[in-house]
Design a protein that fits this description.
Strand order of the largest sheet: 1-2-3
Number of strands: 9
Structural class: alpha+beta
Bound molecules: flavin-adenine dinucleotide
Number of helices: 6
Oligomer: single chain
Radius of gyration: 23 Å
Largest sheet: 3 strands, antiparallel
Number of domains: 2
Shape: elongated
Distance between the termini: 27 Å
């Protein structure tokens, strides 16, 4: 894909400017978009558009204020590329773009130990390993189908209890038997075989089956 993109850019003699951040959409007196102001180490400059400006500047996961405003509850981590700080959300609003589905996200669980600053090698959990295993909340209630796909399953963390004023499923605890501990050992968050303190962050083996 990148090779094809490169060929097209070269064929059209299209210049690629990295380290230039779009900071303002420029418009003429009729309100038509005519270009962008971009910021770089050399200061601000104007890039004029021939026909239109197309944004492909990612999401807003690394902007804590936007996450707080748009997402349904606390997020413990963010994996996307660092510059995804929602620049287009601000620029788009200024140009009158309608926002939609800002509450949506594809999420996966992270290990609480890591987020609490307790060293461990693994952190991410796309699918909880084991087939004799359940996930329960802090009240010991099973609240989710453990084998649902990660983007659906992780919605359960954001269920809010207005009576207790809490997210009862924010932390889920994995309960499993000896069989799962042995058969799926080494698949995060299960420890490596024979060493309960050593966690593994390699890709779950059952992904490749
Ligand atoms: C760890 C991880 C694993 C993933 N795995 C998969 C997978 O297996 N399959 C799948 O389909 N998807 C996967 N995804 C999702 C996929 O990578 C994203 O959905 C996709 O990259 C989003 O593309 P995008 O072009 O919208 O934004 P991005 O890829 O985030 O690109 C946005 C670009 O805009 C630039 N930018 C931001 N602000 C400005 C500004 N003001 N001016 C100029 N440039 C700016 C950024 O530097 C960046 O280069 C994964 C994502 C992550 C984080």
């Amino acid at each position: 894909m990148i090779r094809q993109l490169r060929l097209k850019l070269d064929a059209g003699r299209i210049e690629v400017l990295t380290k230039h951040a779009a900071s303002r959409v420029e418009r003429n007196a009729r309100g038509e978009v005519i270009g962008l102001t971009v910021k770089s180490a050399d200061g601000e400059s104007l890039i004029q558009a021939k026909k239109a400006v197309v944004f492909a500047s990612g999401g807003f996961t690394h902007d804590p204020d936007m996450v707080l405003n748009f997402q349904p509850g606390p997020n413990w981590a963010a994996v996307p590329y660092r510059p995804t700080r929602g620049d287009f959300v601000r620029l788009g609003i200024e140009t009158g773009a309608m926002l939609g589905n800002m509450v949506g996200a594809w999420r996966r669980r992270v290990g609480a130990r890591k987020r609490l600053g307790i060293p461990e090698r693994g952190a991410r959990c796309v699918a909880a390993p084991g087939d004799s295993m359940i996930l329960v909340n802090k009240y010991g209630q099973r609240v989710v189908n453990e084998k649902r796909n990660y983007n659906e399953r992780t919605r359960v963390h954001f269920e809010y209890d207005p009576v207790e004023s809490e997210f009862p499923n924010m932390l889920l605890f994995m309960i499993y038997d000896q069989r799962t501990a042995e058969l799926f050992a080494g698949n995060f968050p299960l420890p490596e075989p024979g060493d309960p303190t050593k966690l593994c962050d390699r890709r779950p083996r059952y992904f490749n089956r």
